[in-house]
Write a structure and sequence with these properties.
CATH class: Alpha Beta
Largest sheet: 10 strands, mixed
CATH architecture: 3-Layer(aba) Sandwich
Mean pLDDT: 93
Distance between the termini: 13 Å
Structural class: alpha/beta
CATH superfamily: Glutaconate Coenzyme A-transferase
Shape: globular
Strand content: 15-25%
Number of strands: 13
Order of helices and strands: HEEEEHEEEHEEEEEHE
Number of domains: 1
Radius of gyration: 17 Å
Strand order of the largest sheet: 4-3-2-1-5-8-10-11-12-13
Number of helices: 4
């Protein structure tokens, strides 16, 4: 059974370690804060100038003045701080973020990522994506394995305008967990009930499968 967006976020939360400073991109990545273990301390950073984000607020408890980079209302934890974008991007460019979690429209087998623009569609701009991928050394992508037409989003080469080149280290989709190394996708885990053959059929890029592939533990 393929994962839903919360399932993807729940699996990625297992990659978050005690003491990490983590940047969450727009979309599925914002859900990760809801699933981080209670027994570890993690600081979530948003490039609009927040350090110490918590889970999404319950309905009726939203504060319209406290938002993330995607303009979603958020909660803040004790000790959270707010600052200007110059300070926020100094943190990012200075490599003070341990883990960056981003959404993507396409990822290539060499680690290229396209996540900001579809030609012909109006967009407000790239936002902080290019700074994040240029500065981060540990980038996990949260995405659906295929698009709405069933075509693979894990490609030999991205067809959309690139955000970053050769920067993605790991991908968690609704079907699988994959590492990007040696210009190939390496299958690490499969979603519960999803077969290796299904993942092969859904992956256009070169997919390496070594031995028995375990199911994800959520």
């Amino acid at each position: 059974m393929a994962l839903d967006k919360n399932g993807i976020a729940k699996r990625i939360a297992k990659e978050v370690k005690d003491g990490f400073y983590v940047n969450l991109g727009i979309g599925i990545p914002t859900l990760v804060a809801n699933f981080v273990r209670d027994d570890i301390e993690v600081e979530f950073q948003s490039e609009n100038g927040v350090l110490g984000m918590g889970p999404f607020p319950f309905e009726g408890e939203e504060d319209a003045d406290i938002i993330n980079a995607g303009k979603q209302t958020i909660t803040t934890l004790a000790g959270a701080s707010f600052f200007d974008s110059a300070t926020s991007f100094s943190m990012i460019r200075g490599k003070h973020v341990d883990l960056t979690i981003l959404g993507a429209m396409e990822v290539a087998e060499n680690g290229d990522i396209a996540n900001w623009k579809i030609p012909g569609r109006m967009v407000k701009g790239m936002g902080g994506a290019m700074d994040l991928v240029a500065s981060a050394e540990n980038i996990i992508v949260a995405m659906m394995h295929t698009n709405k037409r069933g075509a693979s989003k894990l490609l030999k080469k991205c067809s959309l305008p690139l955000t970053g080149v050769g920067c993605v280290t790991k991908i968690v989709t609704n079907l699988a967990v994959l590492e990007v190394k040696d210009n190939m996708f390496h299958l690490i885990e499969r979603a519960p009930g999803v077969s290796v053959e299904e993942i092969k059929e859904a992956t256009e890029g070169t997919l390496i499968v070594n031995g028995e592939i375990p199911e994800m533990v959520l």
